[in-house]
Amino acid sequence: MTESSRRGFFNPWFQVALSTALVTVSELCLKRGAMASIPATGTWGWTGIAGLTSPLVWLGILFVILSFISWLYVLKHLPLSVAFPASQAVHVLVPITSWLVLGELISPTRWCGIALVLVGLAVVAKPVAALEEKI
Amino acid sequence: MNVFSMMLILISLITFVIGQLVLKRAMELAGAIGLGKPKSVRTLTLGIVLMAISFFLTLGLLRNFDLSYLYPFQGLSVIIISLAAAVLLREKLTMPLFVGSALITVGVVLVSIS
Prior knowledge:
The complex is a heterodimer of chains A (135) and B (114). With 135 residues, chain A is mainly alpha-helical. Helices cover 71% and strands 0% of the residues of chain A. In chain A, α1 (12-36) runs antiparallel to α2 (55-77) and α1 (12-36) crosses α4 (90-102). Chain A is globular. The termini of chain A are close together. With 114 residues, chain B is mainly α. The mean pLDDT of chain B is 90. Chain B starts with a helix and ends with a helix. The chains are: A mainly alpha (135), B mainly alpha (114). Chains A and B meet through α2, α3 and α5 of A and α1, α2, α4 and α5 of B.
């Protein structure tokens, strides 16, 4: 069985998506947690260490670690020059989930950036399809 | 923005890029000789250390600069990593892959500066 023909959970492409989704969820947790821990901020406020008083920050850290493990699995099975650009979907997911979940605003320039990343991902997906055929 | 800050930004970018390349190498080694072997463990540790250096440098820089100022530099890592993977890891860099990476780089920069 070739590496990228692994099915379901162990398919490297599923892991690229999983790792990206985990980063997005962790960013949301960290943002929510950081905001919740503002009252605990003292002299060491600039270090962000007060964030550790928030359970959401710990949850965010857990998701970061899980995404890193998933990313190592991706690196084991896919070329870096393909996997890394694909992982940049995070720059689409984070602004859009920040908009939907946190109610943050997205400027027109940012929408343009999101669109460009999506076009780039689509262009990258073509050689990936070719790569799959070759394997 | 002085020469020192510029250097810190450059070092954080370089350690991030080399960190990714080293992690990739570590996982190749893991596939070839096993993750438990000293050589794999050493390479993986080096990769994690490099990523940690980049992380803390960025954290320190964030105290003095806006995220929207620093993040575009991270965006550049996409195109640099694609080129470095082609040259150093001998991965095949096709034209669509290069063009796609360039588009993503510009997109990430736009997302960050706005």
